[in-house]
Amino acid sequence: MNISVLGGDGYCGWATALHLSARGHKVSIIDNFSRRLWDYQLGVQTLTPIRPLTERVKTWRDLTGKNIEVITGDITDYEFLASTLATLSPESIVHFAEQRSAPYSMIDRQHAVFTQVNNVVGTLNLLFAIRELCPDCHLVKLGTMGEYGTPNIDIEEGYITIEHNGRKDVLPYPKQPGSFYHLSKVHDSHNILFACRIWGLRATDLNQGVVYGTLTDEIELDETLINRFDYDEVFGTVLNRFCIQAAVGHPITVYGKGGQTRGYLDIRDTVRCIEIACLNPAARGECRVFNQFTESFSVLQIAEMVQTAAQKLGRKAEIQHLPPPRVELEEHYYNAKHSKLIDLGLKPHYLSESLLDSLMNIAIRYRDRVDTANFLPQVNWRNPRNERRRQESVPAASEPEMALAADGQGRR
Amino acid sequence: MNISVLGGDGYCGWATALHLSARGHKVSIIDNFSRRLWDYQLGVQTLTPIRPLTERVKTWRDLTGKNIEVITGDITDYEFLASTLATLSPESIVHFAEQRSAPYSMIDRQHAVFTQVNNVVGTLNLLFAIRELCPDCHLVKLGTMGEYGTPNIDIEEGYITIEHNGRKDVLPYPKQPGSFYHLSKVHDSHNILFACRIWGLRATDLNQGVVYGTLTDEIELDETLINRFDYDEVFGTVLNRFCIQAAVGHPITVYGKGGQTRGYLDIRDTVRCIEIACLNPAARGECRVFNQFTESFSVLQIAEMVQTAAQKLGRKAEIQHLPPPRVELEEHYYNAKHSKLIDLGLKPHYLSESLLDSLMNIAIRYRDRVDTANFLPQVNWRNPRNERRRQESVPAASEPEMALAADGQGRR
Fold first, then answer.
1. Which class for B366: exposed (0-12), middle (13-18), buried (19 or more C-beta within 10 A)?
2. Separation between Cα atoms, residue A345 and residue A332, nearest integer Å
3. Are residues A176 and B175, on separate chains, in Cβ contact within 8 Å?
């Protein structure tokens, strides 16, 4: 299948592009490298030393003989997007090309406006481009489980049957997103559903949970293919950050009580879910929604699992409760459905001790790149503007502890 | 009360500004005159010869001694908006300052993107400005009944209690908007609800129905105060257009079967609803939703009422069913609640023959300004780009008929 991956240089995008290429698909990547730019702007970097995309793609070709075409540009530029799609004629477009951090969107007004305009306009452009240039193409769009918020009823996959005053209808599931970023995804979802309805487009909106892990079968082939592994407060996701904190001897920082429960999945399942969606396209006019996660955990459960795994590696990992920087329920009901991808063949990689182990060992390997100042939240939802101050880095852990870890990858 | 009316030079905005001023409030208008610009761009004009805002405001002052301050600028420019609100310190902000036409948003990609960016960024700026500069200020935001679409269950006012799998919650009512414009209002609603939740702002989201009429008590005082009366396919609303069509002897153009049912209200009720919302502000942290309309009609019912009224004025008014330019259900269930404004004291002006009569006579009075080419829809929802071609105007009606109408205002 001819598949274009928008945002294919990012965390999920890169892993997906490689996986689809490995599975024999014709893959192209469209990216404007804004994710790398934001790292510079925020003064942070991924734990892992990621290589330029040209080098990544060349290594992949050298190793596998498979070519991934790279097109550089910004999908908010319609002329660029349209001419690119006209040339590529993809059968599926996987759309990761959005600003995807909640804290980033909450820094201040400019970041909120940028996030919503960037994401909404990119997706609108894509809908118009598909309508005009490749109306049969299947849009596989990354949404987020965060679109639903934490309602006191079960979360369904995109739509809910409502009985009300003796009548019944199937309606879009009500959305209660928790940041200007999550709101941008809700805006996208409404726009996509409408475009499918009026133009007969086909779309799958993947409401993805929190992704963890960095390795996939393809990425493990060579260090040049290494994927992002973000741990900073803005772009780091919670399980990844906890593993790195535990690995370097920093307290595991839980926001508030830690009862915040969310859906999670291994990045190896992300890439598989995307292929499943591509291979089973939505019908013309259909806007299908899959909840893309495999397990639910509270933040405190995640912290405790990481703590246990760390202790087995001989590392003391204290759990530290920080004043919650976000405005969210710290204890709530959470039961989100996620059977549609399983029905289509997903075999989940459930969170395991060996995975936590592997993540901590990656952290130990790249310990020199850890900047513990980036662990702590500086973006508070309650403030209309947050100034992220550059804090001096403090040593990550005592030297003997690190020496032990580096020797034999910290296993006992 | 100190009230700023954003978009106070527009159709509802101007009538509202005058009404609030007449009722003794301190009123300021913020407007960038984009509504007037769009008329030039589309090659259309309001039936009524509206005067420049400075002249309108001067006449109002001369007549009543009441001053309305005018500030010219664009609320998508945050520096302008923030400095203006810092100076005005309003207690209520009435926000009409959005692109409000569904067909305009459906012309092509650029108009869709413009509508969503303009509306979403303007409202985001306003939320940040209120948070930073006047956090106690009450935002009275114009939404639309079109946010809900036409679900097969009763439409509630903003929120719905859902019982699902043995549990219950009150959630935002699911939205199924029918154009990129209506989608922009849904995006706004989600953004406003979130801002109220995290920042404790107070907001009233008024989901307004289709407004008809042009006169209010204040506007009737002097012709210089005359309000817009749009009949073109892009900015004209259905009842107003039908009255003008009937008045000039043009067939009443119903899109499709005409079973499309919507909520309607008289502009005299619009202005009253706004004052009621201002005088009864939402609590801190509350995002309250009122459905602002007084009666529901199908398009065909409206057409038939206008036809009957026209016949009483001696005018033949044929009903013509056009191929539907929009993608919408032509027959559907529709039962939308609208009791909250009534509970707060709204006394509706129900649609009457005398109102239809008055509208047709205004049309007859300004018959020389009617361009019948602007009646017909040129924007089709199914097309990703619509070229609005300038059509030659055809004479509106036969001369004898018009002479009759002009004489004695067409009454018999």
1. middle
2. 31
3. no
Q: Which residues of B are catalytic?
A: 144, 181, 185
Contact check, Cβ <8 Å, B180/A167: no
Angle between helices A109-133 and A78-88 (to 10 degrees): 40
List of residues 6+ apart from A178 with CB closer than 8 A: A102, A146, A149, A326, A327, A328, B194
pLDDT score for A391: 54
Q: How far is CA B214 from the centre of its chain?
A: 11
Number of cross-chain residue pairs from A and B with Cβ atoms under 8 Å apart: 148
Given a contact cutoff of 8 angstroms between Cβ atoms, the answer to whether A137 and A93 are in contact is: yes
The nearest alpha carbon in chain A to B194 belongs to A178
Burial of A403 (0-12, 13-18, 19+ CB in 10 A): exposed
Strands A138-144 and A92-95: parallel
Shortest Cα distance, chain B CAs vs residue A51, angstroms? 35
Q: Is B153 in Cβ contact with A162 (below 8 Å)?
A: yes
d(CA A247, CA A307): 10
CA–chain centroid gap for A60, Å, is 22
The one-letter code for the residue type at A50 is: I
CB contact under 8 A, A178 and B194: yes
**pTM confidence score:** 0.95
CB B119 within 8 A of CB B182: no
Region label for B158, one of left (φ > 0), alpha (ψ between -120 and 50) or beta (otherwise): left
pLDDT (tens digit per residue) in B20-38 = 999 999 999 999 999 999 9
C-alpha distance from residue A121 to each of A381, B111, B160, B386 (Å) = 24, 12, 30, 19
Whether this model's ipTM surpasses 0.90 comes out as: yes
What tens digit of pLDDT does each residue of B358-407 get? 999 999 999 999 999 999 999 999 999 999 775 554 444 444 444 343 33
Tokens of A392: 């001096």
With beta carbons less than 8 A apart as the criterion, state whether B159 and B189 touch.
no
> Does residue B412 have a pLDDT over 70?
no
* Residue ranges of E strands in A54-166: 68-72, 92-95, 138-144, 159-164
* CB B75, CB B122: distance < 8 Å: yes
CB-based contact B190:A172 (threshold 8 Å):
no
Distances from the Cα of B306 to the Cα of A356, B230, B356, angstroms: 72, 17, 7
Name the token pair of A360: 């901590």
d(CA A305, CA A351): 10
Residues in chain A, overall count? 412
CA angle (A174 as vertex; A171, A180 as ends), nearest 5: 135
The pLDDT tens digits for B216-226 are: 999 999 999 99
d(CA A310, CA A64): 36
Residue numbers in B near A327 (CB within 8 A): 197-198
Question: How far is A97 from A12, CA to CA, in rounded Å?
Answer: 10
Structure confidence by residue, pLDDT tens digits, A218-272: 999 999 999 999 999 999 999 999 999 999 999 999 999 999 999 999 999 999 9
Length of chain B, please? 412
Over chain B, what is the mean pLDDT?
A: 94
pLDDT in tens, B2-21: 999 999 999 999 999 999 99
